[in-house]
Write a structure and sequence with these properties.
By secondary structure, this protein is an alpha+beta fold. The protein is built from 14 helices and 25 strands. The strands form 7 sheets. Strands 1, 4, 16, 17, 20, 21, 22 and 23 form an 8-stranded mixed β-sheet that branches. It has a 4-stranded mixed β-sheet with strand order 6-15-14-13, with no helix packed on it. A hairpin with an 8-residue loop joins strand 2 and strand 3. The longest helix has 17 residues. It is globular.
């Protein structure tokens, strides 16, 4: 029923100065590749076309998501959560989509064309589909682009808290013509990841009724959308239970075949397989565990796929904590943590090729990948070396407790993870055991609101994952720049900021940009701010009676084409 292939899921030459990279090779030296059942076999060679079949009109699909939705503005730091974004993928319009083969493709239903018309100054012109409208009949126009720019550039709205300012803070103007259906974006300096911008758009005409920029930005965060410019619109939201979408009758593009898409909120991993088996859900794509995969393989009514994703697990430290502000303590903590031990007891049970990740920006198999972490000893599990770091900095371990150089006890550290996530719970428990040997008391405190916990800094240490896109340069600015709202632990380094900013100004010079990002990464690694753990697997299990659902290793996930999901016409088989 399944096999493990050699080599890579695929190589994508991504458009417009974007890195060409290996999608799902498990190891840089050509280790084993993805596993899959027969239904997803074509996803290795034809990732954008696999699991395709004759479509039957009507029906409902229920897709499990692992977090209750606490924020509706996915542009904000609080709403910058994968599950929130996925739940709204069929509702909010996007200029580009990231496909399973890692290509970046224009959303042809929203825009007729996207073109760089000048290199100096860099100018991008978007020609919008003249039929594209919000579901109240208001045209999608340049005003929506202008709003997106103003709430994310940190100049027009200093109190807005966007997840990222990357690209938007390098734009000098966004203007409309042709009745708002032509949008011209002019940059002060070139931005290589410009295709990551305007993903998604929010309705400017509704924002205008909610007050100033900051007020409307917050309003979008706290209110369930009644607006839509996608194939679906929200019918109802039941907190901690489900979000129900129905077709948007005003959608001008391809009409969805399904009557409903339900995002069922299941925060406990243990409930996923029973729900799939009992047809309470029809598709799941959770963070996998060995037990979950074993059980999924035994379900006769589902296809399944397991391969490398663009997600990476890591441990953040909060530098606003006075104890963790000391680099020596962070170094010791990271040195005592055993990454190989964590892998062996978690992902290594089903992905034995998994190795500790050495970069904060790139994955093994990418030309730009360099391991900066291993040479520092961070993640080695060397408790004696960690004790030596503490001793040299004036710390003492007495009576099983750690005291700093002033004689003050190091306070307990609250380590947080997403509630119900067994992989992260197990990882936290292993970290807890390692740090106990240093006299550090780690208190594990789950959260049911990851975005809120991160954006408010309500943690001392936290384990979560960044989920990447094929566009790698702007991501570094989003998550490591000193002033970024997504720099949750508040690390500040002017030299790193300068290197990342220089990389963000290079278009068509990828190799140089990658060198700059690697220099910045080396600085941050030595400062022991964030400890990368490992590149994570993507897992998708889907009922055989549904078609066009595919594994997608990027942050757009399997929902990238939610408007095409459909029930399978079995009479045509």
């Amino acid at each position: 029923m399944y096999r493990r292939t050699k080599g890579q899921l695929g190589i994508a030459a991504v458009a417009a100065a974007v890195l060409a990279l290996a999608a799902c090779s498990a190891t840089p030296d050509g280790g084993s590749g993805p596993e899959y059942s027969v239904g997803f076999a074509d996803c290795v060679q034809k990732p954008n076309e696999c699991n395709t079949g004759k479509v039957k009109k009507g029906g409902t699909i229920t897709y499990a998501i692992g977090k209750d939705i606490k924020a509706w503005n996915t542009l904000s730091s609080a709403g910058n959560t994968l599950e929130y974004s996925h739940a709204l993928f069929g509702v909010l319009p996007r200029v580009h989509h990231y496909y399973p083969d890692l290509s970046v493709q224009v959303n042809k239903e929203l825009v007729d064309s996207v073109e760089i018309t000048s290199k100096s100054p860099m100018t991008v012109v978007y020609k919008l589909n003249k039929n594209a409208v919000w579901n109240d009949g208001t045209a999608i126009s340049a005003e929506d682009f202008i709003y997106a720019w103003k709430v994310q550039n940190k100049k027009d709205c200093p109190t807005c808290t966007p997840a990222s300012t990357a690209g938007f803070d390098q734009v000098t103007s966004v203007t409309g013509s042709d009745g708002g259906k032509t949008v011209t974006v002019v940059f002060t300096s070139p931005y290589p990841d410009w295709q990551a911008m305007f993903l998604p758009l929010y309705p400017a005409h509704i924002a205008a009724t909610k007050g100033d920029l900051a007020t409307s930005f917050k309003w979008f965060e706290t209110n369930v959308p009644t607006y839509s410019a996608g194939p679906y619109k929200i019918e109802k939201f039941e907190p901690n239970f489900a979000l129900t979408l129905v077709p948007n009758e005003k959608y001008w593009g391809t009409k969805p075949a399904l009557d409903k898409v339900i995002y069922r909120i299941i925060t406990s991993d243990a409930q996923l397989i029973p729900a799939l088996k009992n047809k309470e859900v029809h598709a799941i794509s959770p963070i996998p565990t060995a037990d979950l995969i074993t059980q999924a393989k035994q379900l006769p009514d589902s296809h399944w796929f397991l391969g490398k994703s663009m997600s990476w697990e890591h441990i953040y430290t909060n530098l606003k904590n006075p104890a963790l502000a000391d680099k020596a303590l962070r170094e010791a903590i990271f040195t005592a943590i055993d990454r190989k031990g964590i892998i062996a007891k978690t992902v290594g049970q089903y992905a034995p090729d998994t190795q500790p990740l050495g970069s904060h920006n790139f994955f093994p198999g990418m030309p730009a990948y360099k391991d900066h972490v291993t040479p520092t000893g961070q993640g080695s599990g060397d408790v004696e070396k960690a004790k030596g770091i503490l001793t040299a900095a004036g710390y003492k371990i007495e009576g099983g407790k750690l005291f700093d150089k002033t004689g003050k006890a190091v306070p307990p550290l609250r380590m947080r993870h997403t509630v119900g996530n067994m992989l992260r719970q197990n990882s936290c428990e292993l970290v807890q055991a390692s740090l106990k040997q240093l006299g550090i008391d780690v208190q594990i405190v789950p959260t049911d609101n990851l975005g809120g916990t991160l954006s408010s800094g309500d943690f001392d240490m936290i384990i979560f994952a960044w989920v990447g896109s094929p566009l790698r340069i702007g991501a570094a600015k989003q998550i490591w720049n000193s002033t970024s709202s997504s720099n949750y632990g508040k690390w500040v380094n002017a030299e790193s900021d300068k290197l990342i900013a220089e990389a963000n100004g290079l278009v068509g010079e990828d190799v140089k940009a990658f060198e700059l990002l690697n220099k910045a990464d080396e600085i941050m690694t030595k400062d022991a701010y964030v400890l990368p753990l490992f590149q994570r697997e993507i897992f998708l299990a889907s009922d055989k009676l549904y078609t066009n659902i595919r594994p997608n290793p990027t942050n757009h996930g399997s929902v990238y084409n939610v408007g095409l999901w459909a029930a399978l016409d079995t009479t045509a088989q």
